[in-house]
Structure formats: C-alpha cells, structure tokens
Amino acid sequence: MSLEPGPSRPLLYQQLAAQIAAAIDSGALRAGDRAPSVRKLSVQHGVSVSTVLQAYAHLEAEGLLRARPQSGHYVRGRPSLPEIRPSRTPREASPVSVSSLVAGLYSDAHQDAAVQFGAAYTPFSFLPTRRLGRLLAAAARDSEHAGAEYDLPPGNPALRRQVARRSVEWGCALAPEDFIVTCGATEALNLCLLAVARRGDTVAIESPTFFGILQMLEAHGLRALEIPCDAREGMRLDALEAGLKRHRIAAVIAVPNFSNPLGSVMSDASKEKLVELLARRDVPLIEDDTFGDLHHGPTRPKVAKAFDRRGLVLLCGSFSKTLAPGYRVGWVAAGKFQERVQLLKFSQNIATTTLQQRALAAFLEAGGYDRHLRTLRRRLAGAMNAVAAGVERHFPPGTRMTQPTGGTVLWLELPGRANALTLYERALAEGISLAPGPIFSPRGRYERFVRLSTALEWSDEVDAALARVGAIARDLV
Amino acid sequence: MSLEPGPSRPLLYQQLAAQIAAAIDSGALRAGDRAPSVRKLSVQHGVSVSTVLQAYAHLEAEGLLRARPQSGHYVRGRPSLPEIRPSRTPREASPVSVSSLVAGLYSDAHQDAAVQFGAAYTPFSFLPTRRLGRLLAAAARDSEHAGAEYDLPPGNPALRRQVARRSVEWGCALAPEDFIVTCGATEALNLCLLAVARRGDTVAIESPTFFGILQMLEAHGLRALEIPCDAREGMRLDALEAGLKRHRIAAVIAVPNFSNPLGSVMSDASKEKLVELLARRDVPLIEDDTFGDLHHGPTRPKVAKAFDRRGLVLLCGSFSKTLAPGYRVGWVAAGKFQERVQLLKFSQNIATTTLQQRALAAFLEAGGYDRHLRTLRRRLAGAMNAVAAGVERHFPPGTRMTQPTGGTVLWLELPGRANALTLYERALAEGISLAPGPIFSPRGRYERFVRLSTALEWSDEVDAALARVGAIARDLV
Fold first, then answer.
1. Distance in angstroms (rounded) separating the CA atoms of residues B131 and A74
2. For chain B, which residues make up each domain, given as ranges?
3. Does domain A97-124+371-476 have CATH number 3.30.420.10?
4. Rounded to 5 degrees, what are φ and ψ at A454?
5. CATH number of B12-75
6. Which among B319, B369, B367, B373 is positioned nearest to B155, based on CA atoms?
7. In a 3-state reduction of DSSP, which class is residue A51?
8. A-interface mutation test, from B214, B323, B348, most A Cβ less than 10 A away
9. Cα(A66)–Cα(A385) distance, rounded to whole angstroms?
10. Better pLDDT: A265 or B37
11. Cβ of residue B140 closer than 8 Å to a chain A Cβ
C-alpha cells in the first residue's frame, strides 16, 4: 500500500506507523522480530529517512516497537498485560497522613538500593549536567556579585522570558510577567495551596495521586477528596462534578499531562471541560505540568491553562525532570492569584537561588533545549518500553499495567492477595527499591499496587532486578 | 592610673576601655577629638597593641569611638539622643495583615532608591563574594553530576559539620545531625511554624518585630500576641508570663540576639529564664539567631538554645547576613521537632540547592571565616556609629534612638506628630529608602517610628541623604 500526502490525510509518518501497527496486529510481524531497517523502509515507500524515524518513534511511544542501541528496532507486540481499571474512591473527604510511610521511602536503605524503581529521578546520564555546570560556573565567575545577591520574586527576567517563549508550545502564549520562579514545582504547588486554601479546607485530587502532593496537603492541614481516574484519560469529570456538588471544594489539584502514578493524559476536550466546570463554580485549578515535556509521541500535549479565560488556573512546572533537579528551579503562572503567590514566595524563603536561574536562562537562550528534549524523550520512552516488556516477562499472570504515552512511571496492579508493602520490603531487602501503592492514597489504599520508575538506563542488571521483583510478586500471589 | 592584671579584676582591655570612657565622660576627651594612637597607648600603659585594639573595638561597639580608615579613632561622645522607651502592646492577640505594606517596601521604586536605609542587606563590598563564587564554580566543575543532583534533607553533611563546629561558640555544642539545612533562616522559621502551630493558633512575638516574621504569620493564618520589649534587653519576661497565663500560646518567636528592629540582646540570665518559663508550659521557642554573629563588641552572645534541656527550642540561623544572601542557605536545629521539620522541608521544596551548600562548606572548611567575621563586624559597627552620629546631627530634637551593640539596624522614634509613612513616602520620592514603623506591627502601630538599616558604606552621599531625611522629619514635626 502506498503512502500519499494530502491535506485531508494523516501525515506520512502516521500512515507509515499505521501500516506497521497493522502488520503487528495481523501477526505478519511478531513479538521479538526485527522491524525493517530504516533505510529499507525509506526506499520501499519513497519517503525520507526522517519520516521513517518519526514513524518508529511513534510506534515506540505506543509500545509496539523497542529500539535496541546499535541493533535496530524490534517488535514488542501489543502489550500482553491487561490495562489498569479506572480507580474507585470513597465518597467522603478525609485528612491526609502519609508522611511516615513516605519517610520510609526516602530512608537510607531506600537511597542505597542498588537498583532504583522507587523515586522517579531522571538518570544524570540523560541530562546535560556538564554543560549546565559550566554555565553556572561562568555565572558565578562573571557576574558582579558572583550570585551572592538576591534575585527577588518574581525572579530572573531572562529566565521568565525563556519559559514564556516555551509556553506557546503548551497551547497558551503567556508573558514573562505571568511567571514567578520557584524552588521547583514542589514549592510552586505549595505556594498555590497557601494562596487558595486554608487549613481544614477540602481539596479535590486525582486517585491515585503523587505522594508529594499528599505530603503538602498533610503539611497544610488540608482534607483530600479523591476523584476516580481513568488510567488513560485521567480525572473523571462526571465524578468531579458530583464531588463539587456534594462538597465545598477550595481547589482542585490535577496533573492533566502524564499524571503520577497513572501516566494518563486528559484530552484537550476534557481539559477544556475541566476548566469550564471549575470556572462556573469559581474553584481554582492547580495544574502540575512537571511531566508535560516528556511525551513519548511526537506531540506535546496542551496544558489545561490553555483554556483558562478567568485566571483561575495556577500552572506549575519545573526543570527538575528535564535539566537539573538539584538546581531547584521551577515556576508558577498563577493567573488572578499572581500577586498573592508572589508575596507568599517572598515570605516563604525570600527568593530562588540567583545563579541557578542564570545558568538555566543561559542554557535556554543558547538554544538546543528542544534537541536535548528530543533525545531525552527517546531515551525515556525506550527505558519505559524495556521495563514494561520486563514486567510482562517476569510478573505473575493477572498483573495489570498502565500503558502511558509519556512520563517516567508505570503503575501495576498485582493479582490475588499480593501486598505491595510486603513486596516493597522484600525487594528492598535485596537492594531493589520501588514505590508501594499505599503512599499514593490519603488513607493507605492501593495495597495491591506498585509504581515502578522507568527513569533508568536499561541493563542486564536492571532486568535481573525486575525478575527478582517479579519472582517475589509471584511468591506473594 | 595603671592597669593591673589579676583574677578578680576586669580584663586589661576592659580596664583600659573604662579609663578612656571616663575621660570622655569627664570632658577630657570631647566629641570630634582624635583618640590617642594605638602605639602611644600601648607604650603608655605597658600593654600589647592587641589589648589596645580590643579596648578600642569595645568602645566602638559602645558607640563612644568611631574608627576612620587610615586616620585613627575619633571620639563620638555619649549619644546625645534619648533612648527608645520600652514598647507597650495591646492585651489581646490579633490576626496579622502587613503584606500590602511590605509589598510596597519591595516595590521597584524602593529597590531603585539611590540610598538604601530600607532593607538590611549587608553591602556586597563587605562580603567575600569572589572567593565564594570561585568555590561554587569549582564545585560545579569538579563534582560528579555538577550539582544537578539533590542534596536531600537534612542536607550536606560537611556543611552541617561546620555549622555544628561553630555552635560551640554559641554556648551549645550541637552535633551535625542536630541540623537541617534550609533555604535561609526565613524558610527555617516557616518550617518551625508549620511544625508547631496550626491556622488560628496564637504565637507570641516581640513588639516591634521584623516584618518578615509578620508575613509568615499572615501566610499561615496565625494570630500574633505582641509582647512588650525593652530596647536593650528585648522581650519582657514578666509580660510574656502574663500573656502565657491569659492566652493559649502555640509558640513564641524571639530574636534574643540583636533583635530586629530594636537591636536588643537578652542577657544570659534572661535567656535561661525564658527557656525555663516556656519549658514549664511545654511551649516551643522558635529562636531566630540571624544576627548572632554580628556583635560589635568582642563577645559573641549565647543563644537561648544553650539553655534548652527538653528539646523545645528550635534554633534558626543563616549565612545571608554574613556571607551570601543569594545562596539561600540557612539552618534549623529543631530539637524534639527535628523529624517533623525534616519531613516538612522535603514536602515544601524537596531540598536546598546542592552547589551553594558545597561552596559554603568548602569556605568554612578552608578556615578564615572567623577572620572575615572580625572584619565584617568592625565595618558594620563603624557604619552603625556613623549613621547614629548622622541621625544625631540631622534629626529633629526629641528624636529617640536605640543604642544597639550589634546587628545592622537603628530604630528611631520621631517626636511630636511626625508620621513615619509620610516620611517614608517623601524620602522615597527623593530616592532614599527606609522602613516605616507600621510594618513592624501586626496592626500597623509604631506610626512615629522608622527603622534605618546601617548596613552600608558610609560616604558623603549617605550623609547627605540622611540630612535630607532629617530635614523632612523636622518639617513633619
């Protein structure tokens, strides 16, 4: 079948990808087969090499192909594990208490684990740490006060200009003055909570939700109303609407792009509906877009903020996953709460460090961030595919797994009566970390779930560790 | 009169200082006179040059001498302005609302003022910014991940070791594991408040108190009970005790060493009494020691934490006044709240920046911090003396002023009906900033007070600016 360009047809790479996917579905290409070489396909279909590469990247993101360095692309086949079912949640809000559980996760034993499926930190080998280090050293050397001076809120203008420039890609053209620089997205989210909610208030969250968000709610004495989520589409808006009718909600925290731990992405239509639903009730939306740039497919999903007409969306982001976690630089575009958030930023810790802001601004100004992101995404997609395939090989039958199209985590449901905390402890005893389900719930639910970070370099050692975790899981089942 | 060493007698430098003070009081040395040269006094009294220098430093701290670079010491005479009277406070606690006023203080107009008596930032010319910059650049260059990695709470071990080593001088030998590194003392104080108080709780504070502390109370929805203070001795313990009987107090925030804006220092006996008073009632003391190292006299005052037997004192400190504000590095030793504060630190912004912690650890390890502090203190003492003398020359009769023995601020009470906010606005219109009294009170009191930062390099321009502020004040009176 030939590929045809045309205004009303899918792009060439999409047509090509669809053909290969059909070959896999039909069994013409089977799991483990080597896919046709890029050159061969290019000649065969009369398309450019880059079109073939784009098609392959797309199929990798879809989980159908797996790239092996120096060796080409191999068919993974349609995932054999069933998908995660939509979550169910209690009707009532509850106080949050996860700190002691999470503290365990950051204990020395955990940090020292030889293989880390626990914390979702991007491997340093995937990050331009040397170049950033040189830029930071230059900033320390060349600036008048060597970075000893404050860069008071809203923060470094050059950096805010660069972030604003990137916001066009997110579907909303924000201005430099729309941003406040923060100590990572974590601080951004905390400032938003301080700005819009008071102790005792109820905040609606995704279920399951990132334990960092639960810790914040706990620190500020906020109650959590868990909203059920679809593993692909994220927060269920009908359930949210019902929750809004039953409860006085001070704010909603959502991770519309590559939520953590589900990896779900809300469609643009759902994002728009979410923003409108909340706007009608004057409820602020705190949007965490930390993983937005880590799409495995070719397209960067929009942010919900793109549909914000009333300034009710507080958009938080960060460079911690894409450039340098230890730099502690993130941002918030807080809409109508901008002035309040800026005052709060000052009152919490005066300012974000001066030199890290300068180094990141210099990095972005120099260009090459998009090229870095492309490489980073390819490596993260490859790593996720490898881990997913490993889970399929090693975990007990009946295990369910998400099929994210971005981000760096997989969410697994173990079959039978397997307990995630037991799995966590037994794996840790063997030097392997993972994140047990109960820390993703304000009341310790998700006992049979685990989150695996796939932000790692795949290796035989990692495969062996995954096999060990799988064996323990089989034993527990 | 000869100087005599002996176990029961004051130290030689104290005897010498007392003799010179007596000469000033008797009129034998008058304001503006050049004091005897160091060499001459040394020969005359048969004491070492360093003993004379110590005596002169002591007299500088007392405000009796003023050092002029390259020129020797000059007599300032006993301050001619009357001292600030003890503050009086309302009996009841109140919510706090200062943010909008403080925002004005950090507006562009304020930042751009040609002469800054407003924010109390140590001049960069007094700080080893170049050396720190080189250490930071080296850390970025030489470390494995160039500082892109987290330095998770409690923070850099080498830095905590250095801070612990210094704590011996504060009167308490704390261990490295007693400390958590924070984004400056401001974050440390916020974490302590989050750890021990909940929205709606009442916190006892000094009156007047640093506006940064008021902003924190406002951000966390805490009520303030103002405790009257003596301009020299700080918080009045009888009043605090009465307050503790009348109110349920969740915590006390105090700045026992060189409080801001009063510059008061509690005696060791008062510190001990304060700690015991609170221990009997199980009330935590949040101690801010930001200015502790900036004593103008020879002795570093102890911290209240030195008298803590029950782990109820949460001691906060920082390098922002002594080394590099923009590095955003401080610490807290939170006693029995240590674990809770460490979890909160993680939940608020994960970690303090990696490279700044390393650079400061390297600076302290290399030695020379004490030498730097001696020079810094001498310059800050000189600057404060100069500003104080300028106020005496230029401000209207009846103006009252503190006589701090350390720190970097003077607190003035204007006579008659002069309004501080008017003075602030008219001075700002002429490019001169200062901090108006009402921002140091939760309900906008201290309308006739202003705080002048003396953390500056004295110059004819500064003197002219002070003359302008004085002229406006005369006009308002």
1. 54
2. 12-75, 99-124+371-476, 130-368
3. no
4. -110, 15
5. 1.10.10.10
6. B319
7. helix
8. B348
9. 6
10. A265
11. yes
Query: Is A185:A317 a contact under the CB 8 Å cutoff?
Result: yes
Q: Which of B102, B121, B328, B356 to mutate: most A Cβ within 10 Å?
A: B328
Residue A234 has pLDDT above 90, yes or no: yes
Task: State how far the Cα of B435 lies from the Cα of A62, in Å rounded to an integer.
Answer: 60
> For B55-99, what is each residue's pLDDT tens digit?
998 888 767 888 877 778 888 766 678 889 999 998 898 888 887
Q: Is B95 on the interface with A (CB under 8 A)?
A: no
By percentage, how much of chain B surpasses pLDDT 70? 95
Contacts of A346 in chain B (CB under 8 A): 106, 215
Q: Which of residues 100-129 of A touch B (CB under 8 A)?
A: 102-103, 106, 111, 121, 124, 127, 129
Q: Average the pLDDT over B265-290 and give the result.
A: 98
Rounded mean pLDDT of chain B?
92
Beta strands in B76-207 (DSSP E): 115-117, 180-182, 202-207
Residues of chain A with C-beta less than 8 angstroms from the C-beta of B137 = 136-138, 140-141
State the average pLDDT for chain A.
92
Q: For residue A74, what pLDDT band results from cuts at 50, 70 and 90?
A: confident
Interface contact B242, partner A, CB < 8 A: no
pLDDT tens, residue by residue, B111-149: 778 899 998 899 999 999 999 999 999 999 988 899 999
Architecture of domain B99-124+371-476: Alpha-Beta Complex (3.90)
Average pLDDT over residues B265-291: 98
